[in-house]
Design brief:
The complex is a heterodimer of chains A (174) and B (330).
Chain A (H helix, E strand, L loop, with lengths): L17 H4 L4 H19 L6 H6 L4 H11 L6 H13 L7 H6 L2 H22 L10 H29 L8
Helix pairs in contact in A: 5-7, 5-8, 7-8
Chain B lengths: L26 H12 L6 H25 L3 H25 L8 H26 L1 H10 L6 H30 L6 H39 L13 H26 L2 H6 L1 H26 L4 H25 L4
Classes of the chains: A mainly alpha (174), B mainly alpha (330).
Amino acid sequence: MYDYIEPVKEAEGGGPGTEILKSYTYFLFIAAYGAFFWFARQDIKKGGPRHLTDALGIETNTWIIIYLIAAGFVFGIPQGLVAGLYYQYTGQRFENDRLGFAKSGGVDICFWSAFFVFLIVLYLFTYVVPPLWFGNARPFVIFFFSLAGSLILASKLARRVFTALYGPPRFRSR
Amino acid sequence: MPVTCQQTYFANQRCHYLTYADEPYCRWHKVIRDVRKRYEKTPGMSQINMYMAGACLFMVAVSFSKFGLNPHYIWGLAIAYLLPWACIAFADGMIIRDYPLSQFALWGKLLAFGLAISSITGLAFALALAADKEAGEILIRGMGIGQYKNLVKYGPPVLAILIALLSFVLTERLLGEVLLVENSSLGCIIGLAALGIVVVVLWPMLSGLVSDIDLGGSEAKESGGDEAKSTLLDYEWYELLAAYVVGWIAGVMVNNSMRQSRLGEWAYRRTQGMSMLSCALLPGLALYLTRYVLTELKAEGIFPLILMTGFAAALFCVAATQWIIGRAYS
């Protein structure tokens, strides 16, 4: 026998993609991502300062663009972690409560923490980390640091926001 | 006995601010509720505002990078104007969503901060664009559209007029929605300042036209010289009428849609008279100004006249309707 605890809130449902479309800052994601690519293009165009080449250690423009698009996937990775935390605080699984997850700011926390950490890591690798460090593994090291940083930041932010909304965590992790 | 705000949050928490006047909510939650009521029929504006916030932040980032290349004060003013705009758009977007995180008083404060700062920096920015031709040129060239001569010439004055009028609208919003003041003299002062900037911008054109019409033409005729100065482009009466009608339709559509989305039935009927008057007069003003602008641009033909009159009339009607709506319940 074990004690059954009522979920903190009722599931609000929602199909796949609802969490993104109903998030607080969905259009701001698009604007931010567009602006990021605009600056990247200005950087790598002919006669541009080519800071991205310094940061990533990649010479060709095509590979830089492919890397930046691939790095975009890192923005979605913290979602699994934040969804787990959402269950701890509400008792609702992400799959059953996509709308509630969006309303609690889960998607926004994932995206923005990953986006800011990625920008900070890129900045550090451009101006602070010497260009000869890590050699050809530089793009992968940036990816790893971005991922680790975004997971830590997303976890801290999510705990803070979910505590403000739903009180202390009451459910054991999945 | 002081009463705290009735707004509750999740997890049995509640707002700790005192109530405003006889309202059951504090000032910030009243602001939030008023904004939400204004947009209740257009919930999609939440994401439009988010996109606007993104666009403003993008322009702030561009201004920073341009300031790094060419440290001119106009970039500083652009940042000081656009950053509060981003705050306004972001706060509006958050409030309209009406989700759990939208309930916090923080968004009302962010909105108030944005409105207060941008209404002042907007006037300074508009004045700089109107008075300093070099600054305007640097701004337009910095935006990457310096190859279009007409934009370099007319871009800064048009921007100055738009920003001055927007500052007036923002001040009205600050007074009505955040400070909850009715009939304040501050609105009149900012309105006069905005009007002053518009006159500063238009003055060279207006004074040049006056001399063209009254003195230049007659002097040229008297002296019998061939160097007659440029006069207004000539249009047939039906072309002018068509442009006016298009401007009127554009104005009425803008006016009606704005009032229908933001006002109740009683206020909608109450503002009917002022709306009809503004929709009748403003297309005329738009047509009048458009002829001068097209003459300067040397853009002949009926289509530029109709298009520009319609656009200008719609813009004027947006500003006028905003003003009418602000006074609907007073």
